Amino acid sequence: MPFNTELTRALGIAVPIVQGGMQWVGYAELASAVSNAGGLGLLTALTQPTPEDLRKEIRRCRTMTKNPFGVNLTLLPALVPPDYAAYAQVIIDEGIRVVETAGNSPGPVIKKLKAEGIIVLHKCTTIRHAQSAVKLGVDFLSIDGFECAGHVGEHDITNFILLSKARQVLGVPFIASGGFADGNGLAAALSLGACGINMGTRFMCTVEAPIHQNIKKAIVEAQETDTELVLRRWRNTSRLFKNKVAREAVKVERESKEGKFEEVAPYVSGKRGRQVFLNGDKDFGVWTAGQVIGLIHDIPTCEDLLRRIEREAVAAMKSTQSLLVGEDDKPAEVYGVGKSKL
Ligand SMILES: Cc1cc2nc3c(=O)[nH]c(=O)nc-3n(C[C@H](O)[C@H](O)[C@H](O)COP(=O)(O)O)c2cc1C
């Protein structure tokens, strides 16, 4: 059953589900599979070494789906930042209609993207950052709760609070990100005022995700307690899969007297993390995963996953609705509520 929300209407998609940008995972195979299933797939710009490589990847993705897909542009602080303007230009030249910005204020690219009428979906972990992004003119927000994979922010506010606060104060449509894997989650997000959900870890564990099967199996076997927060000491907290290397990193971080980032840097190397997805050794380096690993029990195709989530969401919404009783259906005696026997 197709959904009708501000997100589905604006993006021209059937299911209000976005596949969040994922470094070393967000290639055309996954993005096109999500879009073909009726959600919004996103290519991850910085997974491509150069803007020209991103252009090729966008073109490759177009051969794999006729449906809309977007690009994630992650603006992380770096000593030598990538050429964001050049990546944004390729996105514009290639006719992409929706961009997920994340990591930092969309300030450096938003003017350029909005001048071309591109829909900007900005992902952030605090209401304050969301409000700043609204001032800059973003179209949608993706509210990333503390449950999420990757950069969780420094305030540890979970989605129960963040989403309701977003509903109360933002005045711009938002989707819920972090901790979603099934249709009950989607129904809950819609009830809290979101117009869709964003999923990362769940999509890693699909047939089309271009990562080693062992890593997908590791996710299936994991519990919600199997993530680790690293780099808190440097206020750059990241939620990672709890493996040997992540545990070591946390140990060094906690025990170091000097607290120099260089001490922990070798453990959190992105290069080694990338290898994990290729060689299937879950302990080879650190890799990103959210607490939602505890809710993932299989490796479906994106098509099967989205159909299942749709069915579950509809069933959950109907079942919640069935809890409402009309005036005439009132039970003769109500204990605890209203007509108390006490
Ligand atoms: C392996 C992996 C890599 C990720 N890389 C990025 C990234 O490069 N940029 C970004 O904005 N978000 C990144 N994320 C976060 C996701 O886009 C999404 O916000 C997050 O996974 C939502 O939480 P969930 O995993 O509970 O669904 C990554 C997530 C995972 C699992």
Polypeptide structure, described:
This protein has about 350 residues and is an alpha/beta fold. It has two domains: about 5-210 and about 305-315, TIM Barrel; about 225-290, no CATH class. It has 14 helices and eleven strands. The chain has helices spanning about 5-10, 30-35, 50-65, 85-95, 105-115, 125-135, 160-170, 185-190, 200-205, 215-220, 245-255, 260-265, 270-280, 300-320, and strands at about 15-20, 40-45, 70-75, 100, 120-125, 140-145, 150, 175, 195-200, 225-230, 240. Strands 1-9-8-6-5-4-3-2 form an eight-stranded parallel sheet. Strands 7-11-10 form a three-stranded antiparallel sheet, covered by helices on one side. α4 links the parallel β3 and β4. Flavin mononucleotide binds near residues 22, 200, 201 and 289.
List the helices and strands and how they pair.
Blueprint lengths: L5 H6 L5 E3 L8 H9 L4 E4 L6 H14 L4 E6 L9 H10 L4 E5 L4 H9 L3 E6 L2 H10 L3 E5 L5 E2 L7 H11 L4 E4 L5 H9 L5 E3 L1 H4 L8 H9 L5 E4 L7 E4 L2 H12 L5 H4 L5 H10 L22 H20 L21
Parallel strand pairs: 1-9, 2-3, 3-4, 4-5, 5-6, 6-8, 8-9
Antiparallel strand pairs: 7-11, 10-11
Helix pairs in contact: 2-3, 3-4, 4-5, 8-14
The structure holds flavin mononucleotide.
Protein name: 2-nitropropane dioxygenase
Pfam families: NMO
Organism: Delitschia confertaspora ATCC 74209
